[in-house]
Design goal:
By secondary structure, the chain is an alpha/beta fold. The chain has four domains: 258 residues, 2-enoyl-CoA Hydratase, Chain A, domain 1 (Alpha-Beta Complex), CATH 3.90.226; 178 residues, NAD(P)-binding Rossmann-like Domain (Rossmann fold, 3-Layer(aba) Sandwich), CATH 3.40.50; 98 residues, N-(1-d-carboxylethyl)-l-norvaline Dehydrogenase, domain 2, CATH 1.10.1040; 100 residues, N-(1-d-carboxylethyl)-l-norvaline Dehydrogenase, domain 2 (Orthogonal Bundle), CATH 1.10.1040. 47% of the residues lie in helices and 12% in strands. Strands 12-11-10-13-14-15-16-17 form an eight-stranded mixed beta sheet, with helices on both faces. Strands 1-2-3-4-6-9 form a six-stranded mixed beta sheet, sandwiched between helices. Helix 11 packs across helix 24. The protein is globular. The structure holds (2S,3S)-3-hydroxy-2-methylbutanoyl-COA.
Length: 713
């Protein structure tokens, strides 16, 4: 757990050992205490180096221990003992030094880092704060502005940036361990005055009050309702205004308010859920560890609209060659300029040169004859896509994977156009495709496990979080969005306003309520989807379609040319492109509409908005689980947090349902179904009923129950 050796004559070398990231488990912490004691007590040892096994320093406290009875020596006194040592202790940082790992390094007298290593204090992303002195030591090195930025965002930085911020003392292209050992020898006799960070004053700019006021406003604004960022700012305020010991006390008090909070539990659930989805399994029994991905070197993207451009950028940034195809010369040229610009801007942010040479542009489909994998992102029209798959199947080499970025169309239908349907799989990206981390990998009935594994692996290469999902209309995310949006429209018919519905959802933690989101994505986009589903009857406003309640409000706005932000008018008015303002026109329009349909407006509480919008979405999630479209609740939660703006600190829709209590979700759905019997999405799913009947087990036990019920199907 921590190995000790004496190297280079008189340097004590301590190596943390807890693969894969040398997390500070109880055993590792005990190992550090023992080996530090041994090094400091060894008269032959003049200086000490702490490093991590396998080229990783330390990924922080062991998150798996949270929520359990914590044993082993606490971090704070352990790091304090290192800092107060009378021999120089040097941290050799490779791979990552994150959270408690960086805090351990900050307690050392020197920090030597590899150029490729990353450092950071990501605790806030887990609903916590750096609780081993990070909030008190970091600002003493970097100053308050940088410390506030790093701790409230949890951002990882390069060691080059860390050097500029005085977080590390030296950066090397060679082995950080060898460099640190040499350095440790060179400082063995040097005084440690000034090297103990906690003994330094915390530099305070003259406008420190304004700095914290702005910081507090920013975190309250951006992380709507999240408590950890606020506590991070408060801990940093202590660093600025109190002596170190009192600041540490304050850090401890603030951490105590976070550690057992529901938000911390939700964020830690999310952390592990995002890793669990990589261990995918299909209803056929195919699994991640039994399916070998084929390496992909040459790719192609067909269709260079917004999505195609983002996908091309993402592939090139992952180091893959891309043939970017657009049928017409003019849009091809426009796309080439747009893609080059995106890559140049990305290179400025990420460092390095833009990978422009990885992309070849062509108006000729024949150009893709030799690629390993094609992603089509042409217009969402089933006839066009079917024809394209026929052509691709004839042009591409027989072993090429044919992937579609469709957001809802039937993968099996597209696969049936190909001579090799087993090599067809959905890769559903989310706009902007070069930014959004979510990727739905959609397996059709004939998609081979190799195709799914290859798409999932390619997604990982592109920096995406891939979730393997089944083939149904809307797959997982868009399918769950439907009842959510539908309830929003019904609430307008019954007396709510867009700003009232959005206010309730944004108060819950969504960055954007459903009507503002509809205005952003375009009311015309939604109209085209409904038209494709045969729901739009231009001019009609009858409120029943396919035997169920239907609200034509979106269709009527479309017919009025109110598409949302793009036309300056939608559910809101936009005097400047992005600022949504309530539109008196809409209120009059709703009043006329209600009068025309004999609908009496009533006062609707926020709680009803949340229950009807969120519980119908959750109910659809249970249907998706029951049908095996998603393998587990974690898959759905990752999709909704990463792709649909579900507030991170609430874990995801299924996690939220488990926290609210399944019995409450069931009861409220039954309540609303009685009030609206013509809305089938309010009909509680039988899996929800089964889970309630089996005592509402914790969410990590749902998979077993689902498997059991499916095995009886
Ligand atoms: C006192 C102190 O102030 C506070 C209180 C704290 O310190 S709180 C803790 C703060 N530290 C963090 O927030 C860092 C979290 N980890 C990461 O950011 C990343 O993991 C990584 C380090 C950048 C590596 O990324 P990766 O892409 O190479 O691999 P991976 O797939 O992500 O991870 C590989 C495997 O390692 C597991 N793992 C990673 N970090 C872990 C950790 N800190 N504890 C336990 N397990 C961890 C992870 O679950 C996965 O396991 P499995 O799922 O395969 O079984």
């Amino acid at each position: 757990m921590a190995q000790y050796s004496r190297v280079s004559g008189n340097v004590g070398l301590i190596t943390l050992q807890n693969p894969p990231v040398n997390a500070l488990s109880a055993a590792v912490r005990q190992g550090i205490v023992d080996t530090v004691k041994r090094a400091l007590g060894d008269p032959e040892v003049k200086s000490v180096v702490i490093c991590g096994q396998n080229g990783v320093f330390c990924g922080g406290a062991d998150i798996r221990e949270f929520g359990t009875h914590m044993t082993g020596p606490p971090l704070v006194p352990m790091i304090h003992a290192i800092e107060m040592a009378d021999k120089p202790v040097v941290a050799a940082i490779e791979g990552v030094a994150l959270g408690g790992g960086l805090e351990l390094a900050l307690g050392c007298h020197y920090r030597i880092a590899h150029t490729k290593a990353k450092v950071g204090l990501p605790e806030v992303t887990l609903g916590l704060l750096p609780a081993a002195g990070g909030t008190q030591r970091l600002p003493r090195l970097t100053g308050l502005p940088a410390a506030i930025a790093l701790i409230t965002t949890g951002r990882q930085i390069t060691t080059a940036e860390a050097l500029k911020l005085s977080i590390v003392d030296q950066v090397t292209d060679y082995s950080a361990v060898d460099t640190a050992v040499k350095f440790a020898k060179s400082v063995a006799e040097r005084s440690l005055d000034g090297r103990r960070v906690s003994e330094r004053p915390c530099p305070c700019p003259p406008d420190v009050d304004a700095l914290f006021e702005a910081a507090m406003q920013k975190v309250r604004q951006s992380a709507r309702g999240a408590i950890a960022p606020v506590a991070c700012v408060q801990a940093l305020q202590a660093a600025a205004t109190m002596p170190y010991a009192l600041g540490m006390q304050r850090e401890k008090e603030l951490m105590a308010t976070l550690f057992t909070s529901g938000q911390a539990r939700a964020l830690q659930y999310s952390f592990f859920a995002q890793r669990a989805v990589g261990r995918w399994s299909l209803p056929s029994g195919a699994r991640w560890d039994g399916s070998k991905p084929r390496p992909i070197r040459k790719t192609a993207v067909i269709g260079l609209g917004t999505m195609g451009r983002g996908i091309t950028v993402s592939l090139a940034q992952a180091g893959l060659s891309v043939i970017a195809v657009e049928a017409q010369e003019k849009p091809l040229k426009e796309a080439q300029q747009a893609i080059s610009g995106m890559l140049q801007r990305g290179a400025k942010r990420r460092g390095g040169a833009p990978p422009l040479d990885l992309i070849t542009y062509s108006a000729n489909l024949q150009a893709v004859a030799d690629v390993d994998l094609v992603i089509e992102a042409v217009f969402e029209d089933v006839a066009l896509k079917k024809q394209l798959f026929q052509h691709l199947s004839a042009i591409c080499k027989p072993e090429a994977f044919l992937c579609t970025n469709t957001s809802a169309l039937d993968i099996d239908l597209l696969a049936s156009q190909s001579r090799h349907p087993e090599l067809v799989v959905g890769m559903h990206f989310f706009a902007p495709a070069h930014v959004m981390k979510l990727l739905e990998v959609v397996h059709g009935s004939r998609s081979s496990p190799e195709a799914v594994a290859t798409a999932m692996n390619l997604g990982k290469q592109m920096g995406k979080v891939g979730v393997a999902v089944g083939n149904c209309h809307g797959f997982v995310g868009n399918r769950m969005l439907k009842p959510y949006l539908e309830q929003g429209l019904f609430l307008l018919e019954e007396g709510a306003t867009p700003e009232m519905v959005d206010g309730a959802l944004e108060e819950f933690g969504f960055a954007m309520g459903l009507f503002r989101m509809s205005d952003l994505s375009g009311i015309d986009v939604g109209w085209r989807v409904r038209k494709g589903e045969g729901l739009v009857q231009p001019g009609a406003s009858v409120r029943v379609r396919q035997g169920r309640r239907y609200s034509p409000l979106g269709d009527l706005l479309y017919e009025q040319g109110r598409f949302g932000q793009k036309t300056g008018r939608g559910w809101y008015r936009y005097d400047n492109r992005h600022e949504a303002k309530p539109d008196p026109w809409l209120n009059n329009f709703l009043e006329d509409y209600r009068a025309r349909h004999g609908l009496a407006a009533r006062r609707i509480e926020c709680q009803e908005v949340l229950e009807r919008c969120l519980y119908t979405l959750i109910n659809e999630g249970f249907r998706i689980l029951e049908e095996g479209i998603a393998a587990g609740p974690e898959d759905i939660d990752v999709i909704y947090v990463l792709g649909y703006g579900w507030p991170k600190h609430r874990g995801g829709p299924m996690y939220y349902a488990s926290m609210v209590g399944l019995i409450k979700v069931l009861e409220r759905l039954e309540h609303y179904l009685r009030a609206h019997p013509d809305v089938p999405s309010l009909q509680p799913c039988s899996l929800l009923r089964r889970l309630v009947a089996s005592g509402s087990p914790p969410i990590h036990k749902w998979r077993k129950i689902i498997k059991k019920t499916q095995s009886h199907l």
